[in-house]
Design goal:
The complex is a heterodimer of chains A (139) and B (792). Chain A is mainly alpha-helical and 139 residues long. In chain A, α2 packs parallel to α5 and α4 packs antiparallel against α5. Chain B has a 3-stranded mixed β-sheet with strand order 1-2-3. Helices cover 75% and strands 2% of the residues of chain B. In chain B, α16 runs antiparallel to α17, α17 runs parallel beside α20 and α27 runs antiparallel to α28. The chains are: A mainly alpha (139), B mainly alpha (792).
Chain lengths: 139, 792
């Protein structure tokens, strides 16, 4: 797997895939996409990077253990729902705000944070599994 | 009957539990004085119950409680009447003395605080048991006594015998408790009555509902296991592994008397029938004689007392079974006498152990001079056991003989009398061995350092002995405040317990004389008797104790067999079973419900759709023809990606997108896993193994396909999707309906799903780590012999 071409291309490929995953995540509310698919793309990106440069380098780049990202994502999604309770609505009611910024209307909502949480859970869990398996493979 | 101001009584029941909570802390700070402090709790509870003595003597019944589980009609309710009052006084009175005794006996133990906590929990459970009115409340306290006794018996858990004794007691008494629960539920279902008070008010209800026989048998199973009737008695001798204060408490007035209490309590409800007066006297009589004989076989003081306790319980069951007025009165008197005497004697046995360092009668002797107070307590206890005047045991024994002599026709009365005399004589002999052997004769050289015990240790047995004496001397007072209230109202309306120490010639007195003479005779020959009985038992070889072990071993074997059947630890087996079950569910449900789909009309496809379909089929063929496993996994991806393309062409971009990603990742992860499974690169199994799996695969695929076609052919209710389509943008500001459903309309589901994803990730991580460490250990094991081989 560690051919020169692959190792040179992998960082660019990974960056592109990451960007694409964020794009998919953010546009998901109106177009095909969303947290789940975005998370899958990001997980593949990290898996590709791992194949090219090795598990150790990926772990260093991630800084936290991948499962920590997943746990953070779950907490974030749950909080996105709980916020509604404090605002006087039922649990998980989507709250929206439409502030003017960057010369246009930017819709912000609790569901966005919820979806980001989903994204993180999917990335974290799959990367955790993939890295632990790759690690054993490379040993 | 009336409801009372219940706060005080709830506090009374709570007092032992409160004491149990504070016991470890109190013990840590008070050290040697903890016993005095903790004994105040049962004394306070005793006082609060004794405070209503006047009302109880007036036959008042105090009821208190509250709804516990109203939807099932379960109440947390209590009934303080004469019977529970008498039991409660003995439980708390003896309990206070046992606490003091434990304060001295376990003074040097680092775990004294824990012991106090356990025995106080037990005391509270026992108190709750005798006061319970609601059947379910009674059951809860009943099982709590089993659990507390488990903790007490297994207190010295470093010893295997203690652990075995604890388990055995829990299995037998807890199992009996479950039978009793079944009986109670049957009562509730059949009659609609749910408390002792209701049952006592309507004694004919159970028979009228036609469930008398099963109810009686189930309740008796509970009572007999708890009160150690043959052949359930085995747990009691083994429970002697408990520290002596626990034995003195559990096996005199409490644990084992719970069954007797239940029988006395239910006597007005279930008693007096042919079944009752056959089963109980027969079981009780056998237990009495066999228990007493086995007592003489023992050499350990505590074990002798344990077997005489079994015998005494047999006598009590026998008396309750006879069921005549005088028999019930005798049972009550004997219960009181036995509780006092046996608790005292157990404490004496503990004191001897403490002072002389052994409990083996063969090694004991001549302690009378060094341990005079203990000797006095022992004499009082033994005399009460043997029914010598002027002790309370004498009154009890007279009443017992009066009851057996008058029990029905001459055949049963003769048999019962002979059984009672034999049992009593044997028990008296055993009591004499406990009370005389260690104290009389020469002091063996090994016991030179024996010494009298501390105040806390001898005050308990001496008090109990003296109470037995005073209770008999002032028998009219005793009967007025304890014995008579305990007798069922139906009996004492006509006659009250009046027996006193005054001379009353009659058959009962002559039988008493015979008993005493026989008892002394047996005591004289106790040493040869012991070896005779031991020889006979060895000849028999098998006993219920060994039977218990065999039963437990069988249970473990059976559960191991079932576990191996269901969980052989083979992944392929699990997979196969899972698929077979899923396939069965699919096919059976479709065939039975007549839901097999109609043959669908073939859709008209564009040429590029045909191409994708062709790729899909080619992918499947590639999987089937792959020579190596890795090629098969990758080929599986062809089929998956073709499916994703199909989704895209059929207008489901979201689905297609996800399918792409899932397919790629699953192929990658599957390939990684495969490399770690250390499989052969190719599947080289013979055909007879491959064909069944092929069948499973084809049936599964076909089943799912048919199922999906069926689903698509059923009428589609579009109200939900219409709702989503209409409101997706209006309410949730999103045009991608799939995503809006995921993050807004059905966000709680999604939250659950991502929690599952996270858990799966964590679980896989854990599994991978386990395998690594196992491999390491394996490697370590292998390495050792290899280096050894290299050296040679």
């Amino acid at each position: 797997m560690r051919t020169v071409i692959f190792r040179v291309v992998a960082p660019f490929l990974t960056s592109l895939m990451f960007l694409f995953s964020l794009f998919v995540l953010l546009r998901g509310h109106n177009e095909p996409g969303g947290g789940f698919i975005g998370g899958l793309i990001a997980a593949s990106a990290i898996a590709v990077y791992g194949m090219a440069v090795g598990v150790e380098a990926v772990r260093r780049a991630l800084f936290f253990h991948p499962i920590v990202y997943a746990a953070f994502g779950l907490v974030m999604s749950a909080l996105a729902g709980i916020v509604s309770i404090f605002a006087g609505f039922q649990f998980m009611t989507g709250l929206w705000a439409f502030p003017e910024a960057l010369g246009g209307e930017v819709p912000i909502s609790t569901t966005l944070f919820f979806d980001v949480g989903v994204y993180l859970v999917v990335v974290g869990a799959i990367v955790a599994i993939a890295l632990s398996l790759e690690e054993r493979y490379s040993n | 009957m009336r409801a009372v101001d219940s706060q005080l009584f709830f506090l009374t029941i709570a007092l032992p539990f409160i004491a149990a909570i504070v016991a470890p802390t109190v013990t840590r700070f008070m050290k040697g004085y903890a016993g005095y402090v903790l004994a105040l709790f049962p004394i306070a509870a005793f006082a609060s119950i004794f405070a209503v003595s006047e009302q109880i003597q007036g036959r008042e019944i105090l009821l208190f409680g509250f709804d516990w589980i109203p939807s099932f009609g379960v109440r947390f309710s209590f009934r303080l009447d004469g019977l529970s009052y008498g039991f409660a006084l003995l439980i708390l009175g003896i309990g206070a003395l046992v606490i003091l005794y434990a304060g001295g006996y376990l003074a040097k133990s680092v775990r004294q605080g824990r012991f106090f906590a356990f025995i106080l929990i037990f005391m509270g459970a026992m108190l709750g048991l005798v006061l319970s009115d609601d059947l379910i409340t009674l059951f809860v306290f009943w099982e709590l006594t089993s659990i507390a006794s488990f903790l007490l018996i297994g207190f010295e858990h470093e010893r295997e015998a203690a652990r075995r004794g604890a388990i055995q007691a829990l299995v037998i008494t807890g199992g009996g408790g479950l039978a009793m629960l079944a009986g109670f539920i049957l009562i509730r279902e059949a009659t609609g009555l749910s408390s002792m008070s209701e049952l006592i008010d309507e004694p004919g209800a159970i028979a009228a509902a036609g469930v008398y026989a099963p109810v009686l048998l189930l309740v008796l199973l509970g009572a007999f296991t708890k009160s150690a009737q043959m052949p359930f008695h085995v747990w009691l001798p083994n429970a002697m592994e408990a520290p002596t204060p626990a034995s003195a408490y559990l096996h005199s007035a409490t644990m084992v008397k719970a069954g007797v209490y239940l029988l006395l309590r239910l006597f007005p409800v279930l008693g007096g029938t042919a079944m009752w007066s056959t089963i109980l006297p027969v079981m009780g009589g056998i237990t009495l004689v066999v228990g007493a004989i086995l007592a003489l076989r023992q050499a350990d003081l505590k074990l002798m007392l344990a077997y005489t306790t079994i015998a005494s319980l047999g006598l009590l069951v026998m008396l309750i079974g006879i069921g005549s007025e005088i028999a019930i009165e005798a049972a009550i008197l004997y219960f009181i006498a036995h509780a006092l005497a046996k608790a005292g004697l157990f404490m004496v046995a503990g004191s001897i152990d403490h002072g002389a360092g052994t409990r083996d009668v063969r090694a004991l002797g001549g302690l009378a001079r060094t341990m005079p107070i203990t000797f006095a307590a022992a004499l009082l206890g033994a005399a009460a056991m043997g029914g010598l005047p002027p002790l309370f045991g004498f009154l009890a024994k007279e009443e017992v003989y009066a009851a057996t002599v008058e029990a029905g026709g001459w055949v049963p009365s003769t048999i019962l009398t002979i059984v009672a005399v034999t049992g009593n004589a044997l028990m008296f002999a055993a009591a004499l061995v406990v009370a005389l052997k260690p104290f009389l004769g020469q002091l063996p050289s090994g016991l030179r350092r024996a010494h009298e015990t501390t105040f806390l240790v001898w005050i308990g047995p001496l008090t109990l002995g003296l109470v037995g004496l005073v209770a008999a001397l002032f028998s009219d007072v005793t009967h007025r405040i304890v014995s008579n209230p305990m007798a069922p109202p139906s009996l004492t309306d006509t006659a009250a317990i009046t027996i006193g120490l005054g001379l009353h010639l009659g058959p009962a007195l002559y039988l008493s004389l015979v008993t005493v003479a026989l008892g002394f005779g047996l005591y004289w020959y106790s040493v040869p008797l012991r070896s005779r009985i031991a020889k006979a038992l060895t000849a028999i070889g098998w006993g219920p104790d060994r039977g218990f072990d065999q039963g437990m071993r069988g249970l473990i074997k059976a559960s191991a067999y079932v576990t191996n059947l269901l969980q052989p630890g083979r992944l392929d087996y699990y997979m196969r079973m899972t698929f077979i079950v899923v396939i069965s569910v699919l096919w059976i449900s479709m065939i039975y419900a007549g839901a097999l789909p109609q043959v669908p009309s073939f859709p008209r496809l564009f040429f590029y759709e045909w191409i994708v379909l062709a790729i899909l089929v080619l992918g499947l063929l590639a999987v089937a023809n792959a020579t190596t496993r890795l090629a098969a996994v990758v080929s599986l991806g062809i089929q998956g990606l073709a499916t994703a393309l199909l989704f895209l062409l059929l207008g489901a971009p979201d689905l297609s997108f996800t399918q792409f990603m899932v397919e790629i990742l699953s192929v990658a992860i599957l390939a990684l896993v495969m490399t770690r499974l250390r499989l052969m690169p190719a599947d080289q199994r013979p055909w007879r193994e491959v064909v069944p799996e092929m069948a499973i695969a084809i049936l599964g695929g076909l089943g799912f396909a048919l199922f999906l076609i069926t689903v698509s052919q059923t009428e589609f209710d579009s109200s939900v999707s219409d709702f989503f389509i209409r409101y997706s943008y209006v309410i949730a500001h999103g045009r991608n309906i799939v995503n809006v459903i995921l993050v807004d309309f059905r966000a709680v589901d999604t939250l659950g799903e991502i929690a599952v994803v996270l858990t799966t990730g964590a679980a896989v991580l854990a599994l991978v780590r386990i395998r690594v460490s196992k491999k390491d250990r394996h490697a370590g094991k292998k390495r050792k012999p290899r280096t050894a081989g290299g050296a040679s």
